[in-house]
Here is the input.
Amino acid sequence: MGEILTAVRAGQEAPSDTMKALVYRGPGFKSVEERPKPVLQAADDAVVKIVKTTICGTDLHILKGDVPTCVPGRILGHEGVGEVESVGANVTMFKPGDKVLISCITSCGKCEYCRRGMYSHCLTGGWILGNEIDGTQAEYVRIPHADTSLYRIPAGMDEEALVMLSDVLPTAFECGVLNGKVERPGLSVAIVGAGPIGLGALLTARFFSPGQIIMIDRDDNRLTMAKKLGADVLINNAVGDPTDRIKALTGGKGVDAAIEAVGTPEAFELCEELIAPGGCIANIGVHGKKVDLHLEKLWSRNITITTRLVDTVTTHILLKAVEMKKLDPNQLISHRFPFARILDAYDTFGRAADTGALKVIIDMARP
Ligand code: ZN
Ligand code: ZN
Here is the structure.
């Protein structure tokens, strides 16, 4: 016992200046490496010790080579919760020891785009974490513009659930549900794709009162999960074109809101097929290929098509909803891994059709 205590004290006197991190090494390659711990670079930076992080579909896009802004050598990850380790002189909202939620979007709060609530396009921020600067799949991360890019975690809240508020739930809510104008009661809503983002759109659409929520996916396991989370109608589009069934469910009109949560030409074109006159197609998916816009069918139908990179302007609302038990993000978590097994976590997440993976939690404290 005495020896252990001595070892801990000795460790504190001479803290290691390196850490473990998951590093992108070019298309198809990633590795766990020992890297220098991040240090404060600007007066509004914070360094955060990661407690829990996760893997995003976007990380898989990076690993395929789809995201040219992310160069080899970059530590991946843009989601997580942690504890503030150190803060720059200009940080006023946080101090060392504070538990924080890390937003996937970094925002200065002062530039033209930030003043318009478009934090995703912040001139000195936006989606930079795990993309243009080192990210959260590491023991520590440097967060620029800390005052406006971190959220305090209220005491007693489930930190694991809050990892879903870094990206998944604000993305689903802002790009899908709010852009799809689902807040009007009684609407027919189709969500194409029942992965974590599509299921997040389902959970947050239920803040309102849609007439029916129709989930469309090629994977019966995901549809079963959608049923548990409150979907009214499940359609597996691997076994046939869902258009006729949806026309039958909507009196021949189609749906008022079609939320694209896959990021493929097929999924977006299905939304174009399903949309009712006056309806709204809300794209969430990250598209790597061109998609045909069928204006020859849509020009006269009074529809709206929206695109958006999540602005994380609703993170505080979603935090409140979790705190008040109106939203349970834990339902999106399927697997948990220690950081030592992060490569297994990537494998499990990358083969979701076989493994049934939704979101996988990487727990830094777990041995
Ligand atoms: Zn993401
Ligand atoms: Zn800004």
Summary: Residues 1-13 have pLDDT under 50 and may be disordered. The longest strand covers residues 46-54. The radius of gyration is 21 Å.
